Amino acid sequence: MKRKHWLLLILSIIAIALSIPELVHNNSGKSKASGSVGKGKLTNAYLVPWSGQNFRYFSPISYFLLDNGYTHSKVHNTILEAYKICESTCPNTQFRIMECSDKSGSKLLFHKTHQNGLSVDFMSSKIKNGKQSRLFDRLGLWHYLLEFSNSGKLNFSNKTSIDFETMARHILALDKAARNNGLRIKKVIFKIELKDDFFKTPSGKKVKQKGIYFAQALPKWTNRVHDDHYHVDFEILR
User: Fold this and answer.
1) Does residue 100 contact residue 117 with C-beta atoms inside 8 Å?
2) Cα gap 134→231, rounded to integer Å
3) Among 22, 127, 183, 206, which one has the highest count of C-beta atoms within 10 angstroms of its own C-beta?
């Protein structure tokens, strides 16, 4: 390839990179959350990593095109610290982050909240025959079409079910990391019919003892879609 063609190729790659903010975003300084999770804005957002030692973001469309991978700086640090804790409490488990907020906050596609950088969705870990099952974790945005029974089993694959114990361990890690970063878990949204099975697990009992609040009632559609993932709202303490 001639030199000028190489130059054009390099310039094209740079132009593409600059057109995708996630490829050049720099996390620095402090974020500011304004308003509420249902009507708010986010200033100086932090971008969660696309992937890490034991986690990755669930959809390139959501991350790179819809710009949904941004959070408040304190939430960003909490997420990463919690996953670090899970390297010990949930060894060999791979987690998936779902929607956070967009770069400036405000309304997020298909979501009523996530507007000020203090809300994050986490994919429910799944097990099959006693081991983590990651087959359906690769569906990206199509993941929302999955439906679990009220006992936590995937409707078209009864051998695959929600791993409530791992979910509880992750929430305990989030609670610890949040307090280390001047936050607390304000609310967890999870399908109402699945909460009993969640709280029956050893770590689920610890979550209940800590008084971490789970939504007690949800609109029908909101309740239906919060089986494949759990939504966490954080609150700034300092």
Assistant:
1) yes
2) 20
3) 183
Contact 55, 95 (CB under 8 A): yes
> What total number of domains does the chain contain?
1
Q: What is the pLDDT of residue 19?
A: 52
Note whether residue 21 is domain-resident. no
Q: What is the pLDDT of residues 81-104, one digit of tens each?
A: 999 999 999 999 999 999 999 988
Phi, psi of 65 (to 5 degrees): -100, -40
| Mean pLDDT, residues 37-58 taken together | 95
Q: What is the pLDDT of residues 123-166, one digit of tens each?
A: 999 999 999 999 999 998 888 889 999 999 998 888 999 999 99
User: Does some domain include residue 13?
Assistant: no
Residue 15 CB neighbour total at 10 angstroms:
9
Query: Which three-class secondary structure state does DSSP give residue 38?
Result: coil
Residue 44 lies in a domain: yes
Q: Cα separations (Å) of 21 from 64, 69, 70, 73?
A: 8, 11, 11, 17
Q: What is the CATH number of the domain that holds 182?
A: 3.30.1380.10
Confidence at 6, pLDDT banded by 50, 70, 90? low
Question: Could you tell me the residue range of the domain that residue 45 belongs to?
Answer: 28-236
Residue 4: CA count within 13 A, CB half-sphere: 0
